[in-house]
Amino acid sequence: MLPILYSFRRCPYAMRARWALLEAGLLVQWREIELRAKPAAMVEASPKGTVPVLVLADGTVIEESLELMHWALAQADPRDCLGAGDPDPWLRQNDDGFKHHLDRFKYSDRYPGADPSVHQREGLSILRGWSARIRETGWLTGERMGLADAALWPFVRQWRIADPQGFDADPELEPLRGWLNHFLEAPGFERLMQRADPWDSGGLQPLFPADAIAVPTDQPLFHLALASDWHQAQNQGEYRVSTRALMLEQVGFIHCSWREQVEPTYDRFYADAGDVLLLEIDPALVNAPLRADAIPSGELFPHLYGPIPLKAVRKVSQR
Ligand SMILES: N[C@@H](CCC(=O)N[C@@H](CS)C(=O)NCC(=O)O)C(=O)O
Question: What pTM value is reported for the model?
Fold first, then answer.
């Protein structure tokens, strides 16, 4: 049984959790909730009543967004977010500091004693610190995207929604704007912001992401490989090319096909590639999550969210 996710579309904690589920190639049962009418099943699983909540098949309940991110990325972390530097100082500064000011600036009517201009100043000073850091290193914890970046962007997005003019005009925030746009313009953004009606126990059970399905383990998968890449994989012990000239860590998954998709893929991307091999993969022998994701035309393609172990390749033939 797939895990059950209780989620709320605009909640930044739920957004960071959905980001990690997407990143790791996972599929869950999606129960969209309304904060003012939480389903009894959710409160029973997690009496503290905040989203996101993930209930695993064995009954384990994950009720903190950062734990959920770690759980997802422990199964697959194709772009090595967990290895990108120590996220803790940034996570603390956001969850224990910035969020406090964000709420009191954005929802000042809910905090009658608070002066929104004070919280605007405090919040901005934190954002400028993040921006300076990004100007220096590219990302919060170094030269590539890490857990801290993935966990914080939904909160920065909320700040921008509260004060778009101020956010867009501040010269000190320029690096932060580019950083935020990286997340907003990524193909995953629309997927993680998909809409669903609130779940009710008698209704349909959609999956998250809604444009994906599970990959059956009893049908072979195929991958077109340049002969030179396949030979290199023999030395490395695994195959890490996503598609022609792009690596797993650049794309986030390895493109595969079902049998009938091989020829059109060859014609589109490999016809002039020279020595091309067709790998036949047993999906039951891979170690990373598999998920069939829709491409823009709506067609579903199987994607592997980790390297192909050599033992999973059942047959190699000349294309
Ligand atoms: N520390 C929690 C915080 C989650 C949280 O506060 N979520 C808000 C929505 S953004 C919530 O569910 N609030 C409950 C309510 O408003 O009733 C986490 O990281 O998962």
Answer: 0.97
